[in-house]
């Protein structure tokens, strides 16, 4: 299975004018999970073969380089996955083609509060549409970066918004933050998949995230 985030990472490395230096850049890492070689979790990845949904990650400038990024975990589990580097004025033509593909029903996953002007676009659940595959769009970056992408991407302005409620997040067993925007991308995806009846995918992504989180924290502790 192809991981679009890793493919995007390789594309960006190929055209970069200088090497991106992430934290722990001297560490000998697995090229797939980006964890330390001795903590590699690749053998434990199980693809969600029964998943009827697709995912698209729109990633802030250097997000695909970061070993701590959890967006690529989603692409490990969901077979139908896409990733693009965000650009406000010149979006990738393949992204625009994807958003307009009649095969898909694209939905932006983003927390919207009651004061937002986008309330008319908000949905709480993705209802099945005959002949269309739900395409969940995740804005992958820090909270500030995600807000910037949400506000400054006119090609996303007409799409429905799946706003995850604080109540649903409070039931998520791995939640350690007080607000939705402090969750990692993979954690939000786990909630979205579970709420929209992709239970196998949600379980496998949750398990993959736990393995990643534990290995990542272990590698950080060893560097202290």
UniProtKB/TrEMBL annotation:
Source organism, top-level taxon: Bacteria
Protein name: tRNA-uridine aminocarboxypropyltransferase
InterPro entries: DTW (IPR005636), DTWD2/TAPT (IPR039262)
Major enzyme class: transferase
One GO-annotated biological process of the protein: tRNA processing
Gene responsible for this protein: yfiP
DTW domain residues: 26-221
EC number: 2.5.1.25
């Amino acid at each position: 299975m192809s991981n679009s985030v890793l493919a995007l990472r390789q594309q960006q490395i190929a055209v970069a004018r200088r090497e991106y230096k992430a934290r722990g850049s001297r560490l000998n890492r697995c090229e797939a999970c980006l964890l330390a070689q001795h903590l590699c979790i690749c053998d434990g990845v199980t693809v969600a073969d029964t998943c009827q949904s697709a995912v698209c990650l729109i990633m802030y400038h250097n997000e695909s380089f970061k070993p701590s990024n959890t967006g690529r975990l989603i692409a490990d589990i969901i077979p139908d996955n896409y990733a693009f580097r965000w650009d406000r004025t010149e979006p990738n033509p393949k992204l625009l083609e994807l958003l307009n593909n009649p095969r898909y029903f694209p939905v932006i996953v983003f927390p919207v509060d009651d004061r937002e002007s986008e309330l008319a676009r908000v949905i709480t659940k993705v209802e099945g549409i005959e002949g269309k595959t739900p395409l969940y769009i995740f804005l992958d970056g820090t909270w500030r970066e995600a807000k910037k992408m949400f506000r400054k991407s006119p090609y996303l302005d007409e799409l429905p918004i799946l706003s995850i409620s604080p109540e649903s997040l409070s039931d998520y067993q791995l939640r350690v933050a007080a607000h939705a925007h402090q969750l990692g991308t993979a954690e939000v995806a786990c909630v979205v998949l579970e709420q929209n009846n992709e239970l196998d995918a949600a379980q496998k992504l949750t398990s993959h995230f736990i393995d990643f989180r534990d290995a990542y924290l272990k590698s950080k502790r060893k560097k202290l």
